[in-house]
């Protein structure tokens, strides 16, 4: 039989193990408030037209429903939600509520907005760890190229690109990224060089954040 002291030591050891365990995968659905991803078994975070305008310090949960300590700010907003993403669920992929919509932005004037350049900031990341970001965006019924360039600034700067036009299953991943010394990664959206859309539409539908080690 364990003495109270030993039991306490065992409990403290268990707590320490939990505290140093890596945060699980974080999933964020960007899109319309009408089609948020609500999944009690595997929670998502939702950013939509009701909260994206001046989002500050959204506390992100991982897919195990644990608070991760990672916070999301939107430093420069999108234009609004677009419902035109792919609605067919892929085996093992993201749910339709996440792939079927997105938040969009534009350079040439559209819906009274122009020269939008969305900027997102993740805070509270561990500067000693590396993170892989996975981006997905879909805009079906497109007859042009709608490539979005996602530039990520952490300890170094990296950019990845994805064409949302008629995209059903392509995602783009970064290499393992080190956050800046203050634990942040800043993500800026711009149209890719291949983007031929008249408004230079760019999109973000899903962001997945996972630890690389
Ligand atoms: Ca959604």
Quick rundown:
The chain is mainly β. The protein is built from two helices and 14 strands.
Please tell me about this protein's structure:
This protein is mostly beta strands. It has a single domain (23-211), classed as Jelly Rolls, CATH 2.60.120. Helix content is 10%, strand content 35%. It is built from two helices and 14 strands; from the N terminus they run H-E-E-E-E-E-H-E-E-E-E-E-E-E-E-E. It has helices spanning 4-20, 96-99; strands at residues 26-31, 45-48, 58-61, 67-76, 80-82, 102-105, 119-123, 131-136, 147-153, 157-163, 172-173, 185-191, 202-204, 206-211. It has a six-stranded antiparallel sheet with strand order 3-4-7-12-9-10, with no helix packed on it. It has a five-stranded mixed sheet with strand order 2-1-14-8-11. A hairpin with a 3-residue loop joins strand 9 and strand 10 (157-163). The longest helix is centred in the first third of the chain and has 17 residues, at 4-20. The protein binds calcium ion. Calcium ion (CA) binds at residues 29, 31-32, 35-37, 97-98, 101.
């Amino acid at each position: 039989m364990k003495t109270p002291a030993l039991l306490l030591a065992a409990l403290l050891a268990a707590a320490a193990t939990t505290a140093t365990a890596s945060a699980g995968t974080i999933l964020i659905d960007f899109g319309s408030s009408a089609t948020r991803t609500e999944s009690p078994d595997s929670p998502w975070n939702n950013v939509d037209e009701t909260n994206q305008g001046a989002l500050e310090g959204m506390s992100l949960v991982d897919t195990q429903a644990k608070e991760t300590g990672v916070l999301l700010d939107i430093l420069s907003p999108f234009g609004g939600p677009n419902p035109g993403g792919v609605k067919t669920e892929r085996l093992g992929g993201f749910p339709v509520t996440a792939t079927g919509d997105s938040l969009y932005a534009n350079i040439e004037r559209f819906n009274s907005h122009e020269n939008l350049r969305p900027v997102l900031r993740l805070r509270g990341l561990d500067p000693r760890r590396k993170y892989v970001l996975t981006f997905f965006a879909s805009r079906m019924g497109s007859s042009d190229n709608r490539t979005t360039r996602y530039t990520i600034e952490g300890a170094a700067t990296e950019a990845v690109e994805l064409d949302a036009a008629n995209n059903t299953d392509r995602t783009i991943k970064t290499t393992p990224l080190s956050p800046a010394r203050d634990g942040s990664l800043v993500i800026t959206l711009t149209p890719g060089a291949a983007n031929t859309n008249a408004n230079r539409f760019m999109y973000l539908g899903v962001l997945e954040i996972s630890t690389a080690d």
